[in-house]
Design goal:
The structure is a single chain. The chain has helices at about 10-20, 35-40, 45, 105-115, 130, 135-150, 195-200, 220-230, 240-250, 305-310, 320-325, 330-335, 340-350, 380-385; strands at about 1-5, 25-30, 50-55, 65-70, 120-125, 155-160, 170-180, 275, 290-295, 360-365, 370-375. By secondary structure, it is an alpha/beta fold. It has 2 domains: about 1-190 and about 335-380, 3-Layer(aba) Sandwich (Rossmann fold), CATH 3.40.50; about 195-335, no CATH class. α1 packs across α13 (about 340-350) and α4 runs parallel beside α6. It is globular.
Length: about 375
């Protein structure tokens, strides 16, 4: 089975597809080549020979069974507000909804897939792409059909990386357009995996002793490390609560501007936070190694720990991300977890082989189904109430 990677950035999804039995015949990225160094650094595992980072109109088409990717932040992401973006008249640009220019990556992927005419097209996005963007998903399917002359059944697959066997609780959406019968079986989670399971064995390993076991050398990482070293900072707490506690105790923080401590004195959902060893990992965002604080050590996560949280095996080198410095952090959070990618790739492979799962979803439109695999088993719900 031949597969083409279209915008998976650092390559986690690509490794999952490769491990599901596909031959990765090509990779296509935008001209900036975001995350490409880590992909190229792992070619011994991916074995892709045709790599092109160019403007989407220049991407060379190839015949494939599967085209897959995870385009950059959509117009349905909570972080895609882009409030500072303005047009030539100074008016604020709307970056939310189905008409958002932030959705261009999806259109680029579908345009490219149409040129390759695969049996299955899969891409990952935030759940809002379905809950608020179902019209856009249908438009993308229609565009694909118009340019290929083929009929595709659209499956909206809502999933949670935790219930697919991953370390992080991360609800997301897969767009699956298929010319062959596609189906899955509901996953069965046997045990709760926690942050300790993901990175606990690295706690006593010296920095630098394992590939990628380095903290990003950013001022913010230094500032948060000082707070973790000098103040009481409890698991699950945002940085602002630990900072207020330090202020009340008269703790001197040398790397902080105590008059204007900035973003790290906040307590919002986007604030830096000390994670909890005994819970599943949280969602990594762009600054994977300089805003997430280790549960017991006075430092942020290392690049290797970020890779582990995303489910990447240690055979996957993250040295290119370390070498890229601050920018390399984003190659983890901007990708998708390995387990999520492997699960959907396994069912794509089974469907291509004429053995789809029995659950094709609930029909909600013309050749349109929704599959929801986010439900937690009762024993897990008791441990992790919503």
């Amino acid at each position: 089975m031949r597969a083409i990677d279209c915008q998976t950035f650092g390559g986690t999804f690509a490794l999952a597809v490769k491990d599901a039995g596909f031959d990765l015949i090509a990779k296509r990225e935008a001209a900036a080549g975001f995350g490409l160094p880590m992909y190229v650094g792992n070619l011994d595992l991916l074995q892709t020979t045709d790599i092109q980072a160019d403007e989407p109109d220049n991407w060379q088409a190839e015949t494939a069974d599967l085209v897959f990717g995870n385009p950059a932040c959509s117009g349905f992401s909570g972080l895609s507000t882009c409030v500072n973006k303005r047009d030539e008249n100074g008016e604020r640009v709307g970056y939310r909804g189905i008409d958002s220019p932030a959705n261009q990556g999806m259109w680029n992927l579908i345009d490219y897939a149409a040129a390759c005419e695969p049996a299955i097209v899969v891409f990952e996005s935030v759940t809002g792409a379905y809950t608020s963007g179902r019209e856009l998903m249908r438009n993308l399917r229609e565009h694909l059909e118009f340019h290929t002359g083929r009929r595709y059944t659209l499956h909206h697959v809502l999933h949670n990386n935790l219930t697919l066997g991953g370390y992080a609780e991360r609800n997301r959406y897969f767009f699956v357009a298929s010319t062959v019968p596609f189906g899955i079986e509901q996953p069965e989670i046997a045990e709760l995996l926690t942050l300790r399971d993901a990175i606990g064995d690295l706690e006593q390993r010296p920095i630098g002793s394992v590939d990628g076991h380095h903290v990003a050398p950013t001022p913010r990482a230094v500032r948060l490390a000082e707070l973790a070293a000098k103040a009481e900072w409890l698991p699950d707490e945002p940085a602002g609560e630990a900072w207020l506690r330090a202020q009340a105790a008269g703790v001197t923080l040398d790397t902080w501007n105590n008059e204007k401590p900035g973003v790290d004195s906040r307590t919002s959902m986007y604030a830096a936070r000390r994670w909890n060893y005994d819970k599943p990992a949280r969602v990594l965002r762009q600054y994977a190694s300089s805003e997430n604080v280790h549960p017991v050590l006075p430092r942020c996560f290392t690049y290797r720990e970020a890779a582990r949280i995303m489910g990447l095996p240690d055979r996957w080198t993250v040295r290119p991300a370390v070498d890229a410095g601050v920018n390399g952090q984003a190659w983890f959070g901007k990708g998708i977890p390995y387990k999520s990618g492997r699960w959907i790739a396994d069912w794509a492979a089974a469907s291509l082989n004429g053995q789809p799962g029995s659950d094709q979803g609930d029909q909600i439109g013309d050749r349109e189904y929704v599959i929801d695999v986010r439900k937690r088993p009762a024993w897990l719900e008791q441990r992790l109430p919503l």
